[in-house]
Amino acid sequence: MIILVINSGSTSLKYQLIDIEKEHILAKGICDRIGLEGSFLTHKTGEESDVTVIEPIPDHKSAVQIVLEYLSHKEHGAIDSLEEISAIGHRVVHGGEFFHNAVLVNDKVLDQISQCCPLAPLHNPPNLVGIQACMHLLPNVPNVVVVDTAFHQSMPKYAYIYGLPYHLYEKYRIRKYGFHGTSHKYVANRAASFVGVPIEELKIITCHLGGGASICAIDRGESIDTSMGFTPLEGLVMGTRCGNIDPAIVPFLMEKENLGFKEIDKLMNKQSGVLGITNLCSDFRDLEKAAYQYNESAQLALDIFCYNVKKFIGQYIAILNGIDIIVFTGGIGEHDWRVRKKSLENLDFLGITIDNEKNRNAVHKALINKELDISGGRSKVKTLVIHTDEELTIAKETAKILK
User: Fold this and answer.
1) CA distances (Å), 284 to each of 33, 141, 241, 296, 308, in order?
2) Of 40, 288, 317, 324, which one has the greatest count of Cβ atoms within 10 A?
């Protein structure tokens, strides 16, 4: 069974073509700068080098069209015919309270995704456009949506209700939703498989650390709390997002700086985080280099980030009433050994220690292995570095729906 996975963003469309039985990527790529000048497709098949095609891509329908063309291209294609595609799996960021699992697309599902657009205005509209484009171009191929927020629908009500008048939840569904659910679910299951214990018997904390970052408490396979909230802005200090702040800061800054809604939203989402703290960059690789050269603001930003990670880990150990496994994943979680080390420092009283040599070498070994154990020799808690694979998860969920 061959599944096409689509992740449609505001000006980009990422894709992977996956043979689900072999868990093998047949082709992958991205259409970038959709609707902008200088749009292009980067396409890769198997061991071949990337093929870059520069041509106008005015909209997402055109993007899907060029992707399909290259998937079955005589020279650069991975399949002989588009009829080999069994189904298309789509990543959708926000599903509100509608979606608890992956679902087959129909008119009702499209309407529900549309209703969630105000909750994720940067993500859901292009997600929706990508789905509709696939339905138009391949009308006989079933489409399935896998929603980032679905995994967190198992949170208890006391974990997701905010301290606002309850009628606002009833009227607008203002509550914690959580994100990165596909990644948290995937690495938690990989962790259980790695240690050889059923996930139903484990207490796991997963740390998805990247430009956007979130932490999740998973009890016996179910999310019971997570750091992101109503939007991806809540929680950790991130690349450009401020994370948790006193809500009174918002009206204070709006008044003092004469900011409107769009300006304050831009400030918190795109001008804050480690970028705002340092006024240097949002990329942690560049932050590490600057900190190594004794840049105080870069070191401060890294300290703040790791402090926040440690704080959430501590909170979640408390609500889980113990911990069996801690997982690091995402661009930072998988590749930044310093962040992992600093985030877990002085937690030996909880039975959490890591092997410094294994931790440093994990970056290089991660190129070969998908799971690495960096736990200290006497650690009571397993600390793992696991490469996340959201596309494979979406493909598996899509195949499950078909079966």
Assistant:
1) 24, 41, 14, 15, 15
2) 317
Q: How far apart are CA 130 and CA 238, in angstroms?
A: 27
Predicted TM-score of the model (pTM): 0.90
pLDDT > 90: what percent of the chain?
81
Q: State what percent of residues in the chain have pLDDT above 70.
A: 99
Q: Which CATH number is 2-147's, of 3.30.43.10, 3.90.550.10, 3.30.420.40, 3.30.750.24?
A: 3.30.420.40
Helix (DSSP H) and strand (DSSP E) numbers for the chain: 15, 14
And the tokens for 142?
Answer: 């079933």
Residue from 32, 59, 107, 148 carrying the catalytic annotation: 148
Task: Give Cα separations from 7 to 1, 30, 211, 259 (angstroms).
Answer: 20, 9, 17, 33
Instruction: Based on the residue annotation, tell me whether 148 is a catalytic residue of this protein.
Output: yes
Angle, alpha carbons 149-151-152 (nearest 5°)? 70
User: What amino acid occupies position 108?
Assistant: K
Looking at the predicted structure, is the pLDDT value of residue 5 above 90?
yes
Give the CA dihedral 329, 330, 335, 341, nearest 10 degrees.
Answer: -50
Domain 197-390: homologous superfamily in CATH: ATPase, nucleotide binding domain (3.30.420.40)
What DSSP designation does 366 have? T
